[in-house]
Amino acid sequence: MSPSTADENSADCIDVIREDTLHAILALEATDAAKGALTATLDKHLANLKIVAGAHLLGLKKQIQLAQKLLLHPRAARVCAVLRALARGKKPATFAEVMARADLLTVWKPHPEPVRVTWISKAPKPGYRPIVVSGPVRTAQALMVRDLLLMMNIDSDFDCAKKGGGGEKRLIKNVCEDIEDGKHWLWTPDIKNCFGSIRPGHLGWLPTDGRLLKNVMFLPKCAKVVVSNDGPEEVGLILQSLGLGIDVASLSVDALRVELLHFTVQVVRRGLVQGSVLSPLLARAVVAQNVHAALDGLEVSTNSISDDLIIRAKTKVEIFAARLAVTKLFSSLPDGPIELHDVLPINANSRRAEAVGYRLEPGNGFGANYVHVKPWLKRVAKFKQRLFTKLKAAKPDDDLFEIAEKYRARWFASQGAWTKVPELSDNVSAAITASYVDDYNSGLPMGTWNVGKSKFDFLTQIP
């Protein structure tokens, strides 16, 4: 990463920290004088962030020294972290409470504050995944460490999910430009259980104190884990989906809850905390570190959206070489493998290539777009699942067509990478959604038909 790019990234991060903290100050139950004092404290923290960000010109050792001195010890850093943590938890707080919490906050000792884990359905996919909700102390600790790491520019240089990365729209634009320029061979693996696969050893290259790894980046042993799913039927379904070999029918409800808690504790302590404000940054950094190491010397382009990788090359030989290099390195990491949901590389000119849920069709674009991009099977399945849920939850007197159209309009607008044909794409998607409602009212599967062994969906036929 060039110095100018690093400075731009740091400036973007500082702007976000400023906005988030100001928002938290405005929401505080405090006098104007107290809010003014907090704003002055924020200014001190922002000044320290700029000093640390600029210290990269002085060398890594100097930057680390300044970072720990200015971002992990001062009261200003602790106050700003507490403010943002309370705002994230949407807990009303007073000026006195903020200052008291800040005085007790430290990242140098493990904190016993419990975390609450909720197992969330992966629908329309089968199974469940654990989401961890941390309290204000653990969140404030994570925010302090995140501020430090952001100023040291450890974030991925190719991940579009990060702040300022442009999201899926930027990613798809990069891919389409590469296809037009001749890099039409794509490899699109995603990482299995990305957060859960990352261990402390995978972050050993970080130039930080080891106590931050044990106390903040990963869940310390003293932190109690509480499972919020306690309904008998739900607990049984979760355990069945996890494939643990437990005979759910033979156990009492209390025994099932004990089994779920035991497994949940193992999962939550195994890797990065799913739901922590710090984990996405750490995961992106680990992935980028290893992808760069694997692809060094190869003529390829790389982007990602969190755990979805998209690598492009001009030739079949180059893309298969990239696939071999990344797979080999990820599977042989000394601190444990990071597994990939592997797929074979594909030539985008086949018009069967997909990226982050979009189908890519070179030579079929609208207007100045060489590649036509539209939502594909995963996005369609998620749309239909949520639509079905909304229709099912409707009251007897509700207009189902109106409910469906309101949801469809929001979904249509959210598909930012779609090269929509003016009016036509919108009108066709509205008509197809209305047909889904007709199918729902008739008790039929929504908008699908089978031809031989292939399954088609109406919504994938939108231009």
Describe how the helices and strands are arranged.
Blueprint: H1 3-26, H2 32-54, H3 60-71, H4 75-88, H5 95-104, E1 115-121, E2 128-134, H6 136-151, H7 167-180, E3 185-187, E4 190-191, H8 194-197, H9 210-217, E5 225-227, H10 232-241, H11 253-270, H12 279-295, E6 301-305, E7 308-313, H13 316-331, E8 340-341, E9 346-347, E10 353-355, E11 358-362, E12 371-375, H14 377-392, H15 400-414, H16 424-441, E13 448-451, E14 454-457
Parallel strand pairs: 1-5
Antiparallel strand pairs: 1-2, 3-7, 3-9, 4-8, 6-7, 10-11, 11-12, 13-14
Helix pairs in contact: 1-2, 1-4, 2-3, 2-4, 2-6, 4-5, 4-6, 10-11, 12-13, 14-15, 15-16
What does this entry look like structurally?
This protein is α+β, with helices and mostly antiparallel strands. The protein has four domains: 3-108; 167-196 and 277-353, Alpha-Beta Plaits; 225-270; 376-461, no CATH class. The protein is 51% helix and 13% strand. It has helices at residues 3-26, 32-54, 60-71, 75-88, 95-104, 136-151, 167-180, 194-197, 210-217, 232-241, 253-270, 279-295, 316-331, 377-392, 400-414, 424-441, and strands spanning 115-121, 128-134, 185-187, 190-191, 225-227, 301-305, 308-313, 340-341, 346-347, 353-355, 358-362, 371-375, 448-451, 454-457. It has a four-stranded antiparallel β-sheet with strand order 6-7-3-9, with helices on both faces. Strands 2-1-5 form a three-stranded mixed β-sheet. A three-stranded antiparallel β-sheet has the order 10-11-12. α1 (3-26) packs across α4 (75-88). It is globular, with a radius of gyration of 25 Å. The model has no long low-confidence stretch (mean pLDDT 92).
